[in-house]
Amino acid sequence: MHADRRNYPMTSKPTLLILAAGKGTRYGGLKQLEPVGPYGQTIIDYSIFDAVRAGFEKIVFVIRAETEKAFREKFNGITDTIVPIEYVFQQTELPEKFQHLNLKRNKPWGTAHAVWSAADKINEAFAVINADDFYGRQAFESMASFFQQKTGKYALIGYPLHRTLSEHGTVSRGICQVDANNQLVKITEHTKIEKKNGKIISHFNGRIIELDRNETVSMNFWGFLPDIFPHLEREFMDFLSKNIHHPEKEFYIPSVVNKIVENHIKKVSVLPGGSLWAGITYKQDKRRLEQTLEKLINQKIYPEKLWTIK
Fold first, then answer.
1. Which of 161, 146, 141, 138 has its CA nearest to residue 276?
2. Rounded distance between C-alpha atoms, residue 139 and residue 142, angstroms
3. How many other CB atoms are there within 10 angstroms of residue 230's CB atom?
4. Mean pLDDT (whole number) for 274-291
5. 15-298, which class in CATH?
6. Burial zone of 67 (CB within 10 Å; 0-12 exposed, 13-18 middle, 19+ buried)
7. Predicted confidence (pLDDT) at residue 227 exceeds the cutoff of 60
8. Which residues have a Cβ under 8 Å from the Cβ of 225 and sit 6 or more positions away?
9. What is the dihedral of CA 262, 151, 119, 221, to 10 degrees?
10. pLDDT digits (tens, 9 = 90+) for 51-65
11. Tens-place pLDDT, residues 28-38
Protein backbone atom coordinates (compact mmCIF):
# COMPACT_ATOMS: atom_id res chain seq x y z
CA MET A 1 0.00 0.00 0.00
CA HIS A 2 1.29 3.44 -0.88
CA ALA A 3 1.64 6.17 1.71
CA ASP A 4 -1.25 8.54 2.43
CA ARG A 5 -0.97 10.82 -0.56
CA ARG A 6 -2.93 13.64 1.07
CA ASN A 7 0.35 14.66 2.73
CA TYR A 8 1.85 15.56 -0.65
CA PRO A 9 1.50 19.13 -1.94
CA MET A 10 -0.73 19.52 -4.98
CA THR A 11 0.55 21.63 -7.86
CA SER A 12 -1.61 23.73 -10.15
CA LYS A 13 -0.18 22.39 -13.40
CA PRO A 14 -0.14 18.80 -14.65
CA THR A 15 2.65 16.25 -14.46
CA LEU A 16 3.84 14.03 -17.31
CA LEU A 17 4.33 10.39 -16.37
CA ILE A 18 6.58 8.58 -18.86
CA LEU A 19 6.44 4.78 -18.92
CA ALA A 20 10.01 3.74 -19.71
CA ALA A 21 10.51 0.41 -17.95
CA GLY A 22 10.12 -1.80 -21.02
CA LYS A 23 12.91 -4.13 -22.08
CA GLY A 24 12.53 -3.50 -25.82
CA THR A 25 12.41 -7.19 -26.62
CA ARG A 26 11.08 -6.80 -30.16
CA TYR A 27 13.36 -3.83 -30.78
CA GLY A 28 16.44 -5.58 -29.49
CA GLY A 29 17.64 -3.02 -26.97
CA LEU A 30 16.88 0.05 -24.85
CA LYS A 31 14.84 1.88 -27.49
CA GLN A 32 13.75 4.50 -24.94
CA LEU A 33 17.21 6.08 -25.29
CA GLU A 34 17.69 5.49 -29.00
CA PRO A 35 18.87 8.69 -30.76
CA VAL A 36 16.42 9.73 -33.49
CA GLY A 37 16.88 13.51 -33.83
CA PRO A 38 19.63 15.41 -35.69
CA TYR A 39 21.61 16.04 -32.49
CA GLY A 40 21.01 12.68 -30.87
CA GLN A 41 17.63 13.56 -29.35
CA THR A 42 15.45 10.68 -28.20
CA ILE A 43 11.68 10.44 -28.57
CA ILE A 44 11.52 11.32 -24.87
CA ASP A 45 13.32 14.61 -25.53
CA TYR A 46 10.60 15.59 -28.00
CA SER A 47 7.85 14.50 -25.60
CA ILE A 48 9.31 16.58 -22.78
CA PHE A 49 9.76 19.54 -25.12
CA ASP A 50 6.12 19.32 -26.24
CA ALA A 51 4.88 18.83 -22.69
CA VAL A 52 6.76 21.81 -21.27
CA ARG A 53 5.57 24.20 -23.96
CA ALA A 54 2.00 22.93 -23.43
CA GLY A 55 2.19 23.77 -19.70
CA PHE A 56 3.26 20.60 -17.89
CA GLU A 57 5.53 21.42 -14.97
CA LYS A 58 7.00 18.11 -13.77
CA ILE A 59 8.26 14.88 -15.32
CA VAL A 60 8.14 11.48 -13.61
CA PHE A 61 9.87 8.50 -15.20
CA VAL A 62 8.91 4.91 -14.47
CA ILE A 63 12.04 2.88 -15.18
CA ARG A 64 13.85 -0.30 -14.19
CA ALA A 65 16.48 0.03 -11.47
CA GLU A 66 19.22 -1.21 -13.76
CA THR A 67 18.61 1.62 -16.24
CA GLU A 68 18.64 4.45 -13.69
CA LYS A 69 22.21 5.52 -14.38
CA ALA A 70 21.64 5.72 -18.14
CA PHE A 71 18.46 7.79 -17.70
CA ARG A 72 20.02 10.17 -15.22
CA GLU A 73 23.04 10.71 -17.43
CA LYS A 74 20.79 11.44 -20.39
CA PHE A 75 18.13 13.67 -18.84
CA ASN A 76 19.35 15.22 -15.61
CA GLY A 77 21.07 18.03 -17.51
CA ILE A 78 17.66 19.60 -18.16
CA THR A 79 16.30 19.14 -14.66
CA ASP A 80 17.32 22.47 -13.15
CA THR A 81 16.96 24.66 -16.21
CA ILE A 82 13.82 23.32 -17.90
CA VAL A 83 11.66 21.07 -15.71
CA PRO A 84 12.10 18.96 -12.55
CA ILE A 85 12.47 15.23 -13.17
CA GLU A 86 11.85 12.39 -10.74
CA TYR A 87 12.28 8.62 -11.05
CA VAL A 88 10.43 5.61 -9.72
CA PHE A 89 11.22 1.96 -10.29
CA GLN A 90 8.75 -0.53 -11.69
CA GLN A 91 9.65 -3.88 -10.25
CA THR A 92 7.77 -7.02 -9.35
CA GLU A 93 6.51 -5.09 -6.33
CA LEU A 94 3.26 -6.42 -4.89
CA PRO A 95 0.67 -4.88 -2.56
CA GLU A 96 1.21 -5.90 1.05
CA LYS A 97 -1.67 -8.36 0.89
CA PHE A 98 0.20 -10.42 -1.72
CA GLN A 99 3.81 -10.08 -0.59
CA HIS A 100 3.76 -13.58 0.87
CA LEU A 101 3.24 -15.06 -2.59
CA ASN A 102 6.32 -16.42 -4.29
CA LEU A 103 5.28 -15.44 -7.81
CA LYS A 104 8.02 -16.13 -10.33
CA ARG A 105 8.09 -13.19 -12.70
CA ASN A 106 11.16 -11.76 -14.44
CA LYS A 107 9.59 -8.51 -15.65
CA PRO A 108 7.11 -5.92 -14.31
CA TRP A 109 3.37 -6.45 -14.38
CA GLY A 110 2.33 -4.18 -17.25
CA THR A 111 1.26 -0.61 -17.93
CA ALA A 112 -1.36 -0.29 -15.18
CA HIS A 113 1.16 -1.52 -12.62
CA ALA A 114 3.65 1.02 -13.98
CA VAL A 115 1.24 3.88 -13.33
CA TRP A 116 0.43 2.52 -9.86
CA SER A 117 4.17 2.46 -9.10
CA ALA A 118 4.28 6.27 -9.37
CA ALA A 119 1.50 7.00 -6.88
CA ASP A 120 3.76 8.52 -4.23
CA LYS A 121 5.21 11.02 -6.72
CA ILE A 122 1.96 12.48 -8.06
CA ASN A 123 -0.82 14.44 -6.39
CA GLU A 124 -2.09 16.46 -9.34
CA ALA A 125 -3.62 15.92 -12.76
CA PHE A 126 -1.23 13.91 -14.90
CA ALA A 127 -0.81 12.52 -18.37
CA VAL A 128 0.60 9.07 -19.10
CA ILE A 129 2.64 8.34 -22.22
CA ASN A 130 4.94 5.63 -23.56
CA ALA A 131 8.62 6.47 -23.84
CA ASP A 132 8.90 4.99 -27.33
CA ASP A 133 5.92 6.74 -28.97
CA PHE A 134 6.18 10.11 -30.70
CA TYR A 135 2.76 11.72 -30.22
CA GLY A 136 3.15 15.15 -31.80
CA ARG A 137 2.72 18.65 -30.40
CA GLN A 138 -1.06 18.79 -30.85
CA ALA A 139 -1.64 15.81 -28.57
CA PHE A 140 0.09 17.50 -25.62
CA GLU A 141 -1.73 20.78 -26.25
CA SER A 142 -5.06 18.95 -26.40
CA MET A 143 -4.43 17.18 -23.09
CA ALA A 144 -3.19 20.35 -21.37
CA SER A 145 -6.32 22.22 -22.54
CA PHE A 146 -8.49 19.40 -21.18
CA PHE A 147 -6.87 19.63 -17.75
CA GLN A 148 -7.46 23.40 -17.68
CA GLN A 149 -11.20 22.79 -18.01
CA LYS A 150 -11.22 20.89 -14.67
CA THR A 151 -14.10 18.64 -15.69
CA GLY A 152 -13.31 15.93 -13.14
CA LYS A 153 -13.15 13.40 -15.97
CA TYR A 154 -10.31 11.31 -17.31
CA ALA A 155 -9.18 11.57 -20.93
CA LEU A 156 -7.56 9.72 -23.78
CA ILE A 157 -5.98 11.01 -26.99
CA GLY A 158 -7.54 9.06 -29.86
CA TYR A 159 -5.62 8.07 -32.99
CA PRO A 160 -6.89 6.57 -36.26
CA LEU A 161 -5.68 2.98 -36.46
CA HIS A 162 -4.11 3.21 -39.92
CA ARG A 163 -1.68 5.92 -38.77
CA THR A 164 -0.30 3.79 -35.92
CA LEU A 165 0.82 0.61 -37.65
CA SER A 166 4.28 -0.73 -38.39
CA GLU A 167 5.35 -2.01 -41.80
CA HIS A 168 7.63 -4.49 -40.07
CA GLY A 169 5.48 -6.60 -37.75
CA THR A 170 2.51 -6.77 -35.44
CA VAL A 171 1.58 -4.12 -32.86
CA SER A 172 -0.64 -3.86 -29.79
CA ARG A 173 -3.44 -1.31 -29.78
CA GLY A 174 -6.48 -0.54 -27.65
CA ILE A 175 -9.52 -0.42 -29.93
CA CYS A 176 -11.95 2.21 -28.63
CA GLN A 177 -15.72 2.37 -28.79
CA VAL A 178 -16.72 6.03 -28.58
CA ASP A 179 -20.21 7.53 -28.29
CA ALA A 180 -21.64 10.59 -30.09
CA ASN A 181 -20.41 12.86 -27.29
CA ASN A 182 -16.81 11.66 -27.64
CA GLN A 183 -17.00 9.69 -24.41
CA LEU A 184 -15.30 6.32 -24.13
CA VAL A 185 -17.75 3.42 -23.98
CA LYS A 186 -15.26 0.56 -24.05
CA ILE A 187 -11.65 -0.17 -24.91
CA THR A 188 -10.42 -3.61 -25.96
CA GLU A 189 -6.74 -4.51 -26.01
CA HIS A 190 -5.65 -6.18 -29.23
CA THR A 191 -2.09 -7.47 -28.89
CA LYS A 192 -1.41 -8.64 -32.46
CA ILE A 193 -2.52 -6.27 -35.22
CA GLU A 194 -0.90 -6.22 -38.66
CA LYS A 195 -1.35 -5.13 -42.25
CA LYS A 196 -1.80 -8.10 -44.57
CA ASN A 197 -2.92 -8.28 -48.21
CA GLY A 198 -4.18 -4.72 -48.14
CA LYS A 199 -6.22 -5.26 -44.98
CA ILE A 200 -5.72 -4.55 -41.30
CA ILE A 201 -6.28 -7.68 -39.26
CA SER A 202 -6.15 -8.61 -35.60
CA HIS A 203 -5.36 -12.03 -34.18
CA PHE A 204 -7.81 -11.82 -31.28
CA ASN A 205 -8.79 -14.64 -28.91
CA GLY A 206 -7.97 -17.33 -31.47
CA ARG A 207 -9.82 -15.57 -34.29
CA ILE A 208 -8.77 -13.34 -37.17
CA ILE A 209 -10.75 -10.09 -37.24
CA GLU A 210 -10.61 -7.44 -39.97
CA LEU A 211 -10.48 -3.93 -38.55
CA ASP A 212 -11.55 -0.63 -40.10
CA ARG A 213 -8.59 1.60 -40.91
CA ASN A 214 -10.27 4.53 -39.15
CA GLU A 215 -10.94 2.72 -35.88
CA THR A 216 -10.12 5.00 -32.95
CA VAL A 217 -7.26 3.49 -30.98
CA SER A 218 -5.40 4.25 -27.80
CA MET A 219 -1.65 4.82 -28.00
CA ASN A 220 -1.45 4.96 -24.20
CA PHE A 221 -1.73 8.76 -23.98
CA TRP A 222 -4.03 9.07 -20.98
CA GLY A 223 -5.12 11.93 -18.75
CA PHE A 224 -5.86 11.04 -15.14
CA LEU A 225 -6.50 12.64 -11.79
CA PRO A 226 -4.79 11.32 -8.65
CA ASP A 227 -7.98 9.54 -7.60
CA ILE A 228 -7.07 6.87 -10.19
CA PHE A 229 -4.50 5.36 -7.81
CA PRO A 230 -6.92 3.64 -5.39
CA HIS A 231 -8.69 2.11 -8.40
CA LEU A 232 -5.38 0.86 -9.75
CA GLU A 233 -4.44 -0.76 -6.46
CA ARG A 234 -7.82 -2.41 -6.01
CA GLU A 235 -7.85 -3.74 -9.56
CA PHE A 236 -4.26 -4.93 -9.27
CA MET A 237 -5.10 -7.00 -6.22
CA ASP A 238 -8.08 -8.45 -8.07
CA PHE A 239 -5.84 -9.17 -11.07
CA LEU A 240 -3.32 -11.00 -8.89
CA SER A 241 -6.04 -13.03 -7.20
CA LYS A 242 -7.25 -14.26 -10.58
CA ASN A 243 -3.80 -14.85 -12.08
CA ILE A 244 -1.75 -16.40 -9.29
CA HIS A 245 -1.13 -19.40 -11.51
CA HIS A 246 -0.60 -17.30 -14.67
CA PRO A 247 2.34 -15.02 -13.84
CA GLU A 248 2.86 -14.23 -17.53
CA LYS A 249 -0.36 -12.19 -17.66
CA GLU A 250 -0.18 -8.40 -18.11
CA PHE A 251 -2.09 -5.81 -16.07
CA TYR A 252 -3.10 -3.22 -18.67
CA ILE A 253 -4.43 0.32 -18.20
CA PRO A 254 -7.49 -0.34 -20.43
CA SER A 255 -8.73 -3.09 -18.10
CA VAL A 256 -8.85 -0.61 -15.21
CA VAL A 257 -10.41 2.13 -17.32
CA ASN A 258 -13.08 -0.27 -18.58
CA LYS A 259 -14.10 -1.10 -15.02
CA ILE A 260 -14.27 2.60 -14.15
CA VAL A 261 -16.44 3.36 -17.17
CA GLU A 262 -18.67 0.29 -16.79
CA ASN A 263 -19.33 1.11 -13.13
CA HIS A 264 -20.06 4.77 -13.96
CA ILE A 265 -17.31 5.95 -11.60
CA LYS A 266 -15.83 8.38 -14.12
CA LYS A 267 -16.36 9.44 -17.69
CA VAL A 268 -13.41 9.33 -20.07
CA SER A 269 -13.32 11.92 -22.85
CA VAL A 270 -11.68 10.89 -26.12
CA LEU A 271 -9.81 13.99 -27.25
CA PRO A 272 -8.68 15.18 -30.66
CA GLY A 273 -4.97 15.62 -31.23
CA GLY A 274 -4.02 12.22 -32.56
CA SER A 275 -3.27 13.40 -36.08
CA LEU A 276 0.42 12.48 -35.96
CA TRP A 277 2.16 9.46 -34.54
CA ALA A 278 5.42 7.60 -35.08
CA GLY A 279 7.14 4.94 -33.00
CA ILE A 280 9.90 2.37 -32.97
CA THR A 281 8.43 -1.01 -32.17
CA TYR A 282 11.00 -2.60 -34.48
CA LYS A 283 14.51 -1.54 -35.58
CA GLN A 284 13.24 -0.95 -39.11
CA ASP A 285 10.74 1.64 -37.83
CA LYS A 286 13.51 4.06 -36.91
CA ARG A 287 14.02 5.50 -40.38
CA ARG A 288 10.34 6.44 -40.73
CA LEU A 289 10.49 8.26 -37.41
CA GLU A 290 13.67 10.10 -38.42
CA GLN A 291 12.00 11.20 -41.66
CA THR A 292 8.95 12.43 -39.74
CA LEU A 293 11.16 14.51 -37.45
CA GLU A 294 13.17 15.88 -40.38
CA LYS A 295 9.94 17.08 -41.99
CA LEU A 296 8.68 18.71 -38.79
CA ILE A 297 12.03 20.45 -38.26
CA ASN A 298 11.93 21.78 -41.82
CA GLN A 299 8.41 23.08 -41.09
CA LYS A 300 9.82 24.91 -38.02
CA ILE A 301 7.54 22.95 -35.67
CA TYR A 302 10.67 21.84 -33.81
CA PRO A 303 14.10 23.48 -33.65
CA GLU A 304 17.08 21.38 -34.66
CA LYS A 305 18.42 21.71 -31.10
CA LEU A 306 15.76 21.33 -28.43
CA TRP A 307 18.10 22.29 -25.58
CA THR A 308 21.61 21.65 -24.39
CA ILE A 309 21.87 18.51 -22.28
CA LYS A 310 24.93 18.22 -20.04
1. 138
2. 5
3. 14
4. 85
5. alpha beta
6. buried
7. yes
8. 125, 126, 152, 154
9. 70
10. 999 999 999 999 988
11. 457 788 899 99
